[in-house]
Automatic annotation (TrEMBL), chain A:
<feature type="domain" description="STAS">
    <location>
        <begin position="2"/>
        <end position="113"/>
    </location>
</feature>
<dbReference type="Pfam" id="PF01740">
    <property type="entry name" value="STAS"/>
</dbReference>
<protein>
    <submittedName>
        <fullName>Anti-sigma-factor antagonist</fullName>
    </submittedName>
</protein>
<dbReference type="InterPro" id="IPR002645">
    <property type="entry name" value="STAS_dom"/>
</dbReference>
<dbReference type="InterPro" id="IPR036513">
    <property type="entry name" value="STAS_dom_sf"/>
</dbReference>
<dbReference type="InterPro" id="IPR051932">
    <property type="entry name" value="Bact_StressResp_Reg"/>
</dbReference>
């Protein structure tokens, strides 16, 4: 069965969709990504959709699912590379992709993932510091 | 059961059809085939990239409806010429359970299935002309036209 490859890059998983998405393939990607996040303890998922010529409500729903599932598993999802014509069509179709973070390209998406990961790490460290302070008092 | 007709019937005056093909929609891979066929014709007619994307996306939504709610069916693709303007007409037909309340089905966010409920209303917004006929127990026909 055809599968979309998932690459691991440090803390992140990288997916580049380069084929026409049919429904089963999209569902398989959702399942595979969920499993890989758990296996690799990834903190970020970057999905490059620059190869997608259309995003309809089904693919929109899968992208939303992936973003929500990854959040539950303590990972962030960023969707990058949407073609201008796809963005125009999505808005007219009425899909707002709520809850999905987007960036213009892979580079900016990686930066977004890194900064949001640093933020959470800093928050954890800050909380630990505060906890230490409390302990001393 | 009488057919419910929404919006104005498509005006056929001075309009000529140039090319027709029909595709079966029986599986989710057929939805991809429909998208590819629509894209080819849209390019042939000379649609710009945004118009291509809109009609292909609308076709994808309606083909999936035909499959999921109609239990499969067909789509007829026709290129149109009306005076100097060219267009693409897509007719989706199924022999499924039909739609009891078309107004409700056209509402954003309404769904009886697993989708987002944007399919029918979204496809309507992406097309220049939209017509839907449905009879409970007999089937549904959706026609969209996009002009260049």
């Amino acid at each position: 069965m055809e599968r979309i490859p998932i690459l691991k890059m440090g803390n992140f998983l990288l997916v580049t969709i380069q084929v026409d998405m049919y429904d089963r393939l999209a569902m398989t990607l959702q399942d595979d990504l969920t499993n890989r996040i758990t296996q690799t303890h990834a903190h970020g998922v970057l999905i490059d959709i620059s190869g997608l010529e259309i995003v309809d409500s089904f693919i929109g729903r899968i992208l939303g699912n992936i973003a929500r599932i990854s959040r539950v598993l303590d990972a962030q999802t960023v969707v990058v590379g949407m073609q201008p014509a796809v963005a125009i069509t999505l808005v007219e179709l009425g899909l707002s992709l709520t809850g999905i973070r987007t960036a213009l390209n892979v580079e900016k998406g990686m930066a977004l993932l890194r900064s949001s990961l640093n933020e959470t790490t800093n928050q954890v460290i800050a909380t630990q510091w505060r906890a230490d302070d409390d302990a001393e008092d | 059961m009488k057919l419910q007709i929404r919006s104005l019937p498509l005006n056929g005056v001075q309009m000529t059809m140039q090319k027709t093909e029909t595709i079966d929609i029986q599986s989710s891979t057929d939805v991809v085939l429909v998208r590819q066929a629509v894209r080819l014709l849209a390019v042939e007619i000379g649609f710009g990239l945004v118009d291509q994307t809109k009609i292909v996306t609308a076709a994808s939504e309606l083909a999936r409806n035909t499959l999921d709610y109609g239990g499969g069916g067909t789509v007829k693709l026709e290129t149109l010429q009306e005076g100097r303007r060219r267009g693409l007409r897509l007719t989706f037909e199924d022999r499924g359970p039909g739609i009891p309340d078309i107004d409700l089905a056209l509402k954003d966010g309404f769904t009886t299935g697993s989708g987002l409920g944007m399919g029918l209303s979204g496809a309507k917004r992406l097309a220049n002309e939209f017509e839907i006929q449905s009879a409970v127990g007999e089937g549904t026909r959706v026609i969209i036209v996009r002009w260049k």
